[in-house]
Amino acid sequence: MGKKMSREAVDARRTRAIGLFKRGFSQAEVARRLKVTRQSAMRWQRAYESGGAEALRSKKRGRPTRLSEKQLEQFEKALLQGAKAHGWSSDIWTLERIGIVLQRLHGVSYHTGHLWRVLGAMGWSPQRPATRARERDEDAIEGWKKHEWPRLKKTPGGQSTSSS
Predict the structure, then answer these.
(1) 3-state secondary structure of 154
(2) 79: nearest Cα among 65, 94, 64
(3) Helix (H, G, I), strand (E, B) or coil at 19
(4) At residue 81, what are phi and psi to the nearest 5 degrees?
C-alpha cells in the first residue's frame, strides 16, 4: 500500500491526468505515467467529462468533528490545569477522567478508546513517570510477585492456582 497523499496532491494528480487526456493520451498511458490503475484514470476522465474540474476535487471523508477549534482550545486549557484542579486527589490524567472533564465542559462524550484520537489530534501523547516513586518498596513488590500473584493467577482452564 502506498503512502497517504494530501488532498491537494490527489487533486493535482487528477488535474495532470486531465491535461494528459486533453493532449490525446489514452487511459492506459495516463495511468502508466501517473502510476495509478487504468480504472482510476477512466473514472477521472468520466468525472471531468460529466462535471468539469469541480467533479475531480476530492471530498472530505468521515464524520464531522464534534468539537470546534475554540472548544478544543478550552478543553486543552482545562487539561493543562491538572486533574487536581478538577476535583481529583492526584494530578494524574486517565482517559476516564479526561472524558469526564470533556463531558462537563462541552457536554460531549467519547468512548475512552476514541479519546486517544482527540488527544492525538491536539498533539498530546501518553506519558509515563520518568522515575520510580521514592516510596517504592522493592522487597514488598518482589514478595507479592512470588507469593500473592501465583495464588491469584488463573490457569488457562479458568481455575485459580490456589488450593482454596
Answers:
(1) strand
(2) 94
(3) helix
(4) -70, -20
Residue 94 CA, chain-centre distance (Å), reads 17
pTM, 2 dp: 0.48
Dump pLDDT digits (tens) for 4-46.
788 889 999 999 999 999 999 999 999 999 999 999 999 999 9
CA distance 22 to 13: 14
- Residue indicated by cell numbers 469526564: 100
Alpha-carbon span 23 to 106, nearest angstrom: 54
Question: CA dist 66 to 69, 110, 123, Å?
Answer: 10, 10, 17
Instruction: Work out the angle at residue 141's Cα, subtended by the Cα atoms of residues 139 and 146, and round it to the nearest 5 degrees.
Output: 95
* Cβ atoms of residues 153 and 161 within 8 Å: yes
Report the alpha-carbon distance of residue 10 to residue 27 in Å, rounded.
17
